[in-house]
Amino acid sequence: MNRNVVGLDLEKSIFHLYSLSAEGKSVKKKMKRNELLAYIAQMSVSLIGMEACGGAHHWAREFKKLGHEVVLLNARFVKAFAIGNKNDFNDAEAIFIAVSRPNKRILVAKNLEQQEMQMLHRLRQDLIYQRTALTNRIRGFLSELGLVIPQGVNQVRKQLPLILENAENGLPSLSREFFVEMYAGHSKLDKLLPSYFGASRQY
């Protein structure tokens, strides 16, 4: 194996690196987050393998700026090369072995624009999930009080204000306050979606 192949196990604050020396001996390095980039910068041009996990795309961009080749690997692919008990250096060695294989399961490192778009889509999904959950909660609570709203976000938008305005429907005062707050939260989620993803789109 080429000594300029590196397996890097990523963590939030401590990183573990595995490679081979020119003599074929194991080289293991452990370093803090603020030490990593400086260490990689002083290495000769290398093939650096990492699992495609949180932070990997950021580090891939930084290492490529320094002239290194970076490969992101599927974690399931790497797992097949694990040796011994699970620990950070063994994980780094497994990455080293995996990135050295000819048939690698490679994931393409995202640029900043691609990462931003991915974050927007995830945020959109999360907001829609929150709104759906709140819609179902409102309908469920109302049904327990004998007030039934048909399924759907639009039904809550239309029907809940009418229920809150009707002083003769038997809705208890404390419950009415709760529903006022839930409706405000529902409306806020309605406003957040187009503000993040374009007012012309409907959610």
Architecture overview:
There is one protein chain. This protein is α/β, with parallel strands linked by helices and 203 residues long. It folds into two domains: 5-107, Nucleotidyltransferase, domain 5, CATH 3.30.420; 112-197. Helix content is 54%, strand content 15%. It contains seven helices and six strands; from the N terminus they run βββαβαβααβααα. The chain has helices at 33-42, 56-65, 75-79, 88-100, 112-144, 153-165, 173-197, and strands spanning 5-9, 14-20, 26-32, 47-51, 69-73, 106-107. A six-stranded mixed beta sheet has the order 3-2-1-4-5-6. Helix 5 packs antiparallel against helix 7 (173-197). The longest helix is centred in the middle third of the chain and has 33 residues, at 112-144. The termini are far apart. The relative contact order is 0.10. Residues 199-203 have low confidence and may be disordered.
Structural shape: elongated
Order of helix and strand elements from N to C terminus = EEEHEHEHHEHHH
What is the correct CATH architecture of the largest domain?
Answer: 2-Layer Sandwich
Count of distinct structural domains: 2
Helix content: 40-55%
Strand count, sense and barrel status of the largest sheet are: 6 strands, mixed
